[in-house]
Amino acid sequence: MKKKVSALIFNVFLICLSAGFIRSEDFSYRMETFPYNQSFDSGTLYVVVSFDGCKELDKWQDIISFSKTNDIKFTFFISAVYFIPQADKTIYFNPVNPIQEGVSNIGFGGTDQSVSQRKAYVLEAEALGSEIGSHLCGHFDAKTWDKEDWRIEFDEFAEICSFLTVPVKSVRFPYLAMNKYVYPVMGLHGFTSIVSVDEDEFDKYNRVTINNEGENYSFLEFPMGSVQEGKSRVLMMDYNFFVHDKNNGVNPQDIEQKTIDTYLKEAASAFAHNRPLLISHHFSVNDFDNAYWNAMKKSLLTLKEKYPVKFITVSELTRKCQSK
After folding, report:
1. Which H helix or E strand runs over 46?
2. What contacts 279, CB < 8 A, 6 or more positions away?
3. β-bridge partners, 237
4. Which fold would CATH assign to domain 28-225+311-322?
5. Can you tell me the distance from the alpha carbon of 281 to that of 74, in angstroms, rounded to the nearest whole number?
6. pLDDT at 18 over 50
7. CA distances from 252 to 160, 204, 244, 286, 290 (A)
8. Which long-range contacts (CB under 8 A, 24 or more apart) does 95-98 make?
9. In terms of C-beta distances under 8 Å and separation of at least 24 residues, what long-range contacts does 263-271 make, across chains too?
């Protein structure tokens, strides 16, 4: 692994801080909104299944086997710290406090052997046609970050994950926390899409265009789906389902089928309204005997039987929306 260049980045941080560049409005941006049905024709259900973090090796083995057997592509938003062995954790440092080394909200990658196996699974997933996206590094709440904070975190991700064979184009932010200062950094790093938007209306997507230092960049923002659970609106993500089900005393024996029913209902709505179905999971949510994980896999197999379906990656979704 490359040696960290923390001193250089820290010096850049101090220079920018002293010069007052941290919150400078040196870029412009505009946002437009488009309905999905302008890009998606009737008769096909498009499904985007993504995962956050992606540490657990048993889940990697399971989902790659599932992908091979069923010809289903996924998007994996990986956390870079999971590709740093515990013994080398000081390679990573907090973007808002560069002298704080070896600290993340989600730990690190474990043994050298675990990290090597995780890298092998990632490269195998790429070879199978799945996409590797970014969940950044230390899983911090970045809603108050400035441009230099974002730049450091994206730089660290790029360095730690330099073993990837395909450029990373998509990002989901930890806690879905972001702000406008990330856009110039995304542009410089070649990113094109974001899957972190929590909105009531998810039959539309946003296009953000910025001009930064004379360069134009464009990104598509795809909203996360949500469902109504009683009086609550719940983000369509396994962890959010888990929190809701636990807090509302749902019978654990009912959770797997309840989740399947939710996914199939949302698939029917997506198919009827010519919009993609976005399903989001974590490797780490194994509660209720992996009920949400098992429900996800069973739902995807049911969709293959019930609809003319295409399982696409976030980058493929981006290209499809850009083509219209």
Report:
1. strand 45-53
2. 47, 48, 49, 50, 225, 236, 263, 296, 299
3. 280
4. TIM Barrel (3.20.20)
5. 11
6. no
7. 39, 34, 12, 12, 11
8. 95/138, 95/140, 95/145, 95/148, 95/149, 95/150, 95/152, 95/153, 95/156, 96/140, 96/145, 96/149, 98/6, 98/9, 98/10, 98/13, 98/152
9. 263/295, 263/296, 263/299, 263/303, 264/299, 264/302, 264/303, 264/306, 265/227, 266/225, 266/227, 266/236, 267/45, 267/47, 267/299, 267/303, 267/306, 267/307, 270/45, 270/46, 271/45, 271/307
Q: pLDDT band for 200, please (50, 70, 90 cuts).
A: confident
pTM: 0.91
Say how far apart CA 235 and CA 244 lie, in whole Å.
Answer: 10
- pLDDT tens for each residue of 90-100: 999 999 988 88
Distance (Å, rounded) from C-alpha 271 to C-alpha 42? 7
Could you tell me if 219 and 191 are in contact, meaning their C-beta atoms sit under 8 angstroms apart? yes
Please give the share of the chain, as a percent, with pLDDT higher than 70: 92
Q: Is 201 exposed, middle or buried (0-12, 13-18, 19+ CB in 10 A)?
A: exposed
DSSP string, 118-142: HHHHHHHHHHTT-EEEE--SS----
Q: What is the 3-state secondary structure (H, E, C) of 192-257?
A: CEEEEEECCCCCEEEEEEEEECCEEEEEEEEEECEEEECCEEEECEHHHHHHHHHHCCCCHHHHHH
CA distance 157 to 146: 17
309's enclosing H/E stretch is: strand 309-311
In the block, residue with structure tokens 């950044």: 136
- The type of residue at 233 is R
Tokens of 266: 């949302």
